[in-house]
Amino acid sequence: MKILKKELKHLAKEIRYWKFKRKLKNRGNSALWEIELKKNKLSYEFRHKHIAYCQMRGRLRYQIEQPAPNNLPDENYIEEIVHKYGKTLCIST
Q1: CA distances from 12 to 31, 43, 48 (A)
Q2: How many other CB atoms sit within 10 Å of the CB of residue 93?
Q3: Which of 28, 4, 2 is nearest to 20 (CA)?
Q4: What are the tens digits of pLDDT across the range 54-63?
Q5: Residues 86, 56: contact at Cβ < 8 Å?
Q6: Treating both helix axes as pointing N-terminal to C-terminal, what angle do 32-56 and 75-92 enclose, rounded to 10 degrees?
Q7: The predicted structure's pLDDT at residue 58
Q8: How confident is the model at residue 1 (pLDDT cuts 50, 70, 90)?
Q9: What total of structural domains would you count in the chain?
Q10: Range(s) of the domain holding residue 66
């Protein structure tokens, strides 16, 4: 789980960087759509890893987030993350 927490911290730092790059004066030669695409991809990954991390720590779903009906998380992706990091958790302890 420590590995997953480090990844979450790294993803959060990258998301903040790409949010900073959205302003015209910070953009450089990058197009706004490219920046938004990268930020959205990272945000999607962060959201699902955060849900998986919290569930592995024993939180219930309603304690983690209460999404709108049209913005539900991808349960299969969350299960993959739990399976991937759950195995490493069992091996390390």
Answers
A1: 22, 8, 13
A2: 6
A3: 28
A4: 999 999 999 9
A5: yes
A6: 60
A7: 92
A8: confident
A9: 1
A10: 2-92
Task: Spell out the residues 6+ positions from residue 2 whose beta carbon is closer than 8 angstroms to its own.
Answer: none
Q: pLDDT tens across 14-30, in order?
A: 999 999 999 999 999 99
Q: Tokens 């911290």 — which residue?
A: 9
DSSP string, 21-90: TTSHHHHTT--HHHHHHHHHHHHHHHHHHHHHHHHHTT--HHHH----TTS---HHHHHHHHHHHHHHHH
Q: How many CA atoms lie within 13 A of 88 on its CB side?
A: 9
Residue 87 pLDDT > 80:
no
